[in-house]
Amino acid sequence: MLFTLPDHDTLYQALCAKDPSYEGQAFVGVSSTGIFCKFTCPARKPLQKNCTFYDTIHACLEAGYRPCKRCDPTGMGLDENVAMKTLYDAMMADPQRKWQEGDIAAMGLDLSTVRRQFKRHFGMTFLELARLTRLRHGFTHLAQGGKVSDAQYEAGFESASAFRDTFAKVTGLAPSQLMQKGVMSIDWIDTPLGPMVAIADDSNLHLLEFVDRKGLAREVEKLYKGCKGQIGFGRPAVMDRLTTQLTEYFTGNRALFDIPIVMHGTEFTKSVWRQLQQIPAGKTMSYGELAKTIGQPTASRAVARANGTNQIAIVIPCHRVIGADGTLTGYAGGLWRKQKLIETELKYR
User: pTM for the full model?
Assistant: First the structure.
């Protein structure tokens, strides 16, 4: 079972006591400052009437709170969390293993705590992450010319049908629909914020999305139809270049991407996407401000829709657009990722 927050008075007492047992289990949003904190934050404790308690970072961000710079509630990394690091290292040591809740409990770890910690850090549970990791292993096997039945075995799925269903759910295509060599190539790219799917031709990038992005399958299907089914496994030079630049971006060594891209959209959406690329790393802009920059100040809603249909994440930085009041707004890759991307880019100011 997931952790259930106690009543407001109990939570406020725990906050005043800086109770470490709530670490990763509960957060406080402070209406007078607009920030949210961990219970162990060293800052002066707020008045009870200004406190709202949440059970996830995602909920805090959804409510419009910014992370506290002193206690850094979103900054916990794997190395700082023994349970997460232990599980993550075990998964990477045996990526084909089919993990069960019993395996986690057998390691002496609390299931609800682990679930929340992985959900906060990766935007998915450990079991979901392990399943995607296994899928990636099968994807790689197929890309090397292997059979679906063998890929299913390599990925640790119980049946070929289960593997095909999961593969199709993520990519929008059955393994049999992908060629060994096509006009476009599809591959998997790992990042600190989770795996991404990329599609490129020999010269240009057409799609870059997080694997768990809502609507990814639909975007891949549109590209598949657009090139008449000519999508195959492979990694053209532009994709290798993209992988290198993403690594440089996340390590603080690249603020700008110079990857050639193809935009699939109307002239209006393309104008919005081009303007997104003009927002400097480390800066943000509201939808209304973005509408003004393209000469259509009354089109903020249309701009928001165009922003949401961007299918080349990070390279076309739709994450740099926020609400007029400074709060984070919808991001198909998850608000936790939007927050992380904005935090990553603060070093480029």
Answer: 0.71
Residues 39 and 118 in one domain: no
Is 326 within a domain? yes
Rg, the chain, Cα only: 22
Active-site residue, 37 included: no
Q: How many Å separate Cα 85 from the centre of its chain?
A: 19
Number of domains in the chain: 3
SS3 167: helix
> If you ran DSSP here, which 8-state letter would residue 298 be given?
T
The pLDDT > 90 percentage for the chain reads: 44
What are the residue ranges of helices labelled H in the chain? Answer: 8-16, 57-62, 82-93, 101-106, 111-122, 126-143, 148-154, 160-171, 216-226, 237-250, 267-276, 287-293, 300-308, 335-345
Q: Cα–Cα distance between 237 and 344 in angstroms, integer?
A: 26
Tens of pLDDT, residues 287-315: 999 999 999 999 999 999 999 999 999 99
Which band of pLDDT confidence, cut at 50, 70 and 90, is reported for residue 132? confident
Domain of 330, in residue numbers: 267-348
